[in-house]
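Reading a protein record of the kind used here takes only a little practice. Each token is a code from a learned vocabulary of local backbone shapes. With that in mind, consider the following protein and its fold in token form:
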Amino acid sequence: MVYSMTAFARSELSTDQGNLAWELRSVNHRYLEVTLRLPEAFRELEGPLRELLRKQLARGKVECTLRFNPAEQQSSELSLNQPLLDQLIRTTEQLSARLQNAGPVNPLELLAWPGVVIGEKTDQGDLVKQARQLFDQALKELKEHRAREGAELKQLIEDRLSSISERTAVIREMMPTLLTAHRQKLIDRFNDAKLELDSTRVEQEIVLLAQKIDVAEELDRLDTHVAETRRVLDSKDAIGRRLDFLMQEFNREANTLGSKAIDTRSTQAAVDLKVFIEQMREQIQNIE
């Protein structure tokens, strides 16, 4: 299955202790990069969630944010960790004594020190467990979103592959006609210059021209790349990097076809191929 790296999911749960809400955002990235934003009380979830994401996702920049709004009845009266506060005050006084022109200590800065302000201790084990289960739900929704967008990307790529196959077939069909037309053009040039035609010389020039504009090998490789891309699209593994490599190979053959084009029709066909390849490449940047 093809998965897009671009997706969003949100899961919310109301509990007796308050409201939990997960927001998961995923965008394209070369590797898997996870950012977790958790309230301090839920910090123990960070390790298990990172491990879970590494197992479930292969690529993408994923931002996971947990928001917790405590219920009003759960709000507790704040108190101070007096031993820690006394230690901080002593330390700041000692430091001020060693510094010249030291400013007064801001009480708000002391209150911001981790652990100074404490509240009534409550058992949040169930709440953390609920947040963990809610994350599973959000991750499932995120993967479903990635799968839906991936299916759309796959269809777009399939359409472009069909267009490429059609263009290569047209080029194959027109090559004998192009060679015949250039043979006649060469004869006309001899006639216009009022030169005596040497049939052997003309045939030699035609052979050289045929070798120069021969694109059978490039067309064969394009057909091979089309078949390989379709095979990769049906793979069960992460396919984005493999598809990106194939787009480079497509471009190489299209450039060669453009350099060997000898009239407007073959030139336009080569340009069309490059357009289709670029359209695929842009979409493949979003595939896992």
Observations:
- The domain at 150-285 is CATH 1.20.140 (Butyryl-CoA Dehydrogenase, subunit A; domain 3).
- Residues 83 and 116 are 9 Å apart (CA to CA).
